[in-house]
Design the sequence.
């Protein structure tokens, strides 16, 4: 049950992290609900989106994007491969590495789910003006930049 009650001890250290985690959890839950009819979750969507944007990524690179160990990416890629949405192709420069590449069916699914993700974002950010939304996105990009 959602509450509009103020967060106790609003001036305590760690409040920003708490609020970011709370907002992130809400975003993930909303996106997972939207993706459910496709049999996908937010991490599947991220793998599809990132792989499509770069024309293929290694599981190590996907792990970095997701912020998880590459071994955790294996199950996500396995799910997407079983669904026919990605395939593992040989890396052109490293025969030990396979690239996760989005298939034609994956491109169709990605196009459909991008619209859902946009609507989820719009709902989550409805209380913000367009300028505030752009500022928030810029600040979050800075916070999540690994460099």
Sequence:
């Amino acid at each position: 049950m959602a509450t509009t009650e103020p967060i106790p001890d609003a001036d305590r250290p760690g409040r920003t992290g708490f609020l970011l985690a709370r907002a992130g959890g809400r975003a993930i839950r909303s996106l997972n609900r939207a993706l459910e009819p496709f049999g996908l979750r937010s991490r599947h969507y991220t793998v599809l989106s990132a792989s499509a944007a770069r024309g293929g990524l290694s599981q190590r690179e996907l792990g970095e994007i997701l912020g998880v160990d590459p071994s955790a990416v294996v199950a996500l890629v396995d799910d997407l491969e079983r669904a026919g949405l990605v395939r593992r192709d040989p890396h052109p420069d490293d025969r030990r590495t396979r690239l996760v590449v989005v298939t034609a069916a994956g491109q169709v699914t990605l196009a459909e789910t991008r619209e859902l993700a946009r609507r989820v974002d719009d709902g989550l950010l409805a209380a913000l003006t367009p300028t505030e939304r752009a500022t928030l996105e810029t600040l979050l990009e800075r916070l999540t930049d690994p460099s």
